[in-house]
Automatic annotation (TrEMBL):
One of its GO terms (molecular function) is glutaminyl-tRNA synthase (glutamine-hydrolyzing) activity. It comes from Paenibacillus psychroresistens. Belongs to the amidase family. GatA subfamily. It is an enzyme of class 6 (ligase). Keywords: ATP-binding, Ligase, Nucleotide-binding, Protein biosynthesis, Transferase. The gene is gatA. It catalyses: L-glutamyl-tRNA(Gln) + L-glutamine + ATP + H2O = L-glutaminyl-tRNA(Gln) + L-glutamate + ADP + phosphate + H(+). This is Glutamyl-tRNA(Gln) amidotransferase subunit A. Pfam families: Amidase. Residues 5-445 form the Amidase domain. The active site is at K58, S133, S157. PANTHER family: GLUTAMYL-TRNA(GLN) AMIDOTRANSFERASE SUBUNIT A (PTHR11895:SF151), TRANSAMIDASE (PTHR11895). Signal peptide: none annotated. Its EC number is 6.3.5.7. Heterotrimer of A, B and C subunits.
Amino acid sequence: LTVTDLVEHSYSRIHEVEGKVKAFLSLNEDQARAAAKKLDEQSNPERGLLYGLPAGIKDNISTEGLPTTCASKFLANFTAVYDATVMAKLKSAQSITIGKLNMDEFAMGGSNENSGFHLTHNPWNLEHVPGGSSGGSAVSVASGEVYFSLGSDTGGSIRQPAAYCGIVGLKPTYGLVSRYGLVAFASSLDQIGPLTKNVEDSAYVLQAIAGHDPADSTSAKVDIPDYLASLTGDIKGLRIAVPKEYIGKGVDPQVKELVMNALKVLEGLGATWEEVSLPHTEYAVAAYYLLASSEASSNLARFDGVRYGVRTDNADSLIEMYRKSRSEGFGSEVKRRIMLGTYALSSGYYDAYYLKAQKVRTLIKQDFDEVFAKFDVVIGPTAPTTAFKIGTQVDDPLTMYLNDILTIPVNLAGLPAISIPCGFVDGLPVGLQIIGKPLDETTILRTAHAFE
Ligand code: GLN
């Protein structure tokens, strides 16, 4: 088997199923084939960790020479001029970039319905959403178009689509993977991570992309463990906490049942579990949407029609040019968040909203600290329900926001978490979420691998 065979297999699968699932925004066929040929022609090759593996990349990760649109009409014509650090790392691990993947515009959303270009469909049931915002990333892996993909997770955007599509999605500890070249949504929450078919692949990709980066001031200066070596299958004595807030009101009873079954399996492997409380969970969604929108309103100020992307054709003054470019370029969810964030940050409201939300964030972090003093991992569902039908929530932002209740606290606290499949309800996959201590990816990977 040559790398060219792998790449051709990937594109032929794409041509077979893409018309139905629509995971990609752009393909990279010429460059991918050339890269494959180069690897095949290497004499005495020294093989990278991800040698020859076809990869899909979420379209908010900067890829030199390739479109990087964030699924926004604003950046429809934008080609990245440099590689994100994760892309440089993938290149040195020798994976092949097959194309760029659809998402909710600027990663704001949980269903891919906010893409400025087209819908993406859940491969298990095409009438249902794939989740989001890394919907294209999840679908490309779940439908066999690529071997792995990269997504980004600000409030659940890797784990929730992984859960909805029946694959594995890992959000690393904040700071473990460089954000350099990730188009910022909410800089204090964003992390890049892998979406894969199984836990072992997740460990491989994490190994390739983790590590300190001087180009990202929030990058952690830590030694990277051997994630593959942590997949021992042995979880005897593992102490699991199950927050009652994660299996209570609002969680589909069938989803809960599958999580309880998973806990029995883990018990059978020698782990113990206890119910605990994370009492500030109910404030997480409100705090997140204030903080994430505040950061977004600042980060998205750079899209002014001058430096990147589209510029309106019909403006008579500079201010009008800014206003019209932004009005024409951004979709409605992005505008909603910019307005919410600008309001929360404006003088007179700052203390009441932004500062208050920061305090809630600290309380949520403290809830986790207390639980992790006695337990090794926290386990619950990844999302309260399975993937919903396309079109059923798009006009109801509040309901949409509440879908993120189980993933958001993890970002607010900066913790690592993985979603792995744990069964089906009515033909749609359910995800089990395993949350770890800061920088303890090895324990969540080991637990996930033992369960799988
Ligand atoms: N669904 C959440 C939001 O809309 C999470 C997004 C994300 O993690 N990028 O903000």
